[in-house]
Amino acid sequence: MSGHSKWSSIKHKKAAKDAKRGKLFTKLIKEITVAARHGGGDLNANPRLRTAVTTARGQSMPADNIERAIKKGTGELEGAEYVEVTYEGYGPAGVAVMCECLTDNRNRTVAELRHLFSKNGGNLGENGCVAWMFEKQGHVRIDGSGTTEEQVFEAVVEAGAEDVSADEDVFLVVTPSDKLEDVRAGAEAAGLTVSSAEVVLEPQNFVELSGGDAAKTLKLIEALEDHDDVQTVSANFDIDEEELNRLSA
């Protein structure tokens, strides 16, 4: 929708602010550790680990931190045992919210998330209450400098990309989740600069927000994202561009 900004775009506009948070590396280390535990420490044979390490390098994480996280995942070093769990709920104005977490204590995490939802005008729901509103996709973002949408499309379509669109100064390539690494590799082989590659939960419908509902929803999302155990947050809301700029000022 022209002039509007859905969550997949909003969260990347917040990335510069989020990157300043000290918790960013902790979240990346958890993902690397779990990826290595499930698929082994070989980046070439473990697409999830390769994506996690690429993301960490993109955030300037030191190589020693990455190596230690991999070794914790493979058991070469001692570390916490994290489990993957997804929590679902509702925010202000009925916005659907999905929180993908890595935790070593489910009871603690669910109690703390329930408190954050309640404190910020929402409520934690049962498993499956909003999951049907989301589709798992791969999102690859490519630096738009010196290239065209047609050039990007030609580079990624044979690798399995489904759609390419301009998102300000980058191109967003949408792929099936199992084609994410193929598309990323295809883009890089064509000489394109990949700024991020991730599997996301993309909403299939959106709630338009403004005024107090928009402000309260952004506050809830930020509180959830700031929780140590929350890796990603997905939500099905849409905010007018001018309203978003006003709230973010």
List keywords for this structure.
Alpha-Beta Plaits, 10 helices, alpha+beta, Arc Repressor Mutant, subunit A, four-stranded antiparallel beta sheet, about 250 residues, 3 domains, 11 strands
Could you walk me through the main structural features you see in this protein, from its secondary elements to its overall organization?
The chain is an alpha+beta fold. The protein folds into three domains: 4-74, Integrase, N-terminal zinc-binding domain (Arc Repressor Mutant, subunit A); 83-132 and 204-248, Alpha-Beta Plaits, CATH 3.30.70; 133-203, 2-Layer Sandwich (Alpha-Beta Plaits). The protein has helices at 7-13, 15-18, 24-39, 47-58, 63-74, 106-119, 149-156, 180-189, 211-225, 241-248; strands spanning 4-6, 83-90, 96-103, 123-124, 134-143, 163-167, 170-176, 194-203, 207-209, 230-235, 237-240. The strands form three sheets. The chain has a four-stranded antiparallel beta sheet. A four-stranded antiparallel beta sheet has the order 6-7-5-8. Strands 1-11-9 form a three-stranded mixed beta sheet. Strand 2 (83-90) and strand 3 form a beta hairpin. The longest helix is centred in the N-terminal third of the chain and has 16 residues, at 24-39. The radius of gyration is 18 Å and the shape is globular. It starts with a strand and ends with a helix.
SSE layout:
Layout: E1 4-6, H1 7-13, H2 15-18, H3 24-39, H4 47-58, H5 63-74, E2 83-90, E3 96-103, H6 106-119, E4 123-124, E5 134-143, H7 149-156, E6 163-167, E7 170-176, H8 180-189, E8 194-203, E9 207-209, H9 211-225, E10 230-235, E11 237-240, H10 241-248
Parallel strand pairs: 9-11
Antiparallel strand pairs: 1-11, 2-3, 2-4, 3-10, 5-7, 5-8, 6-7
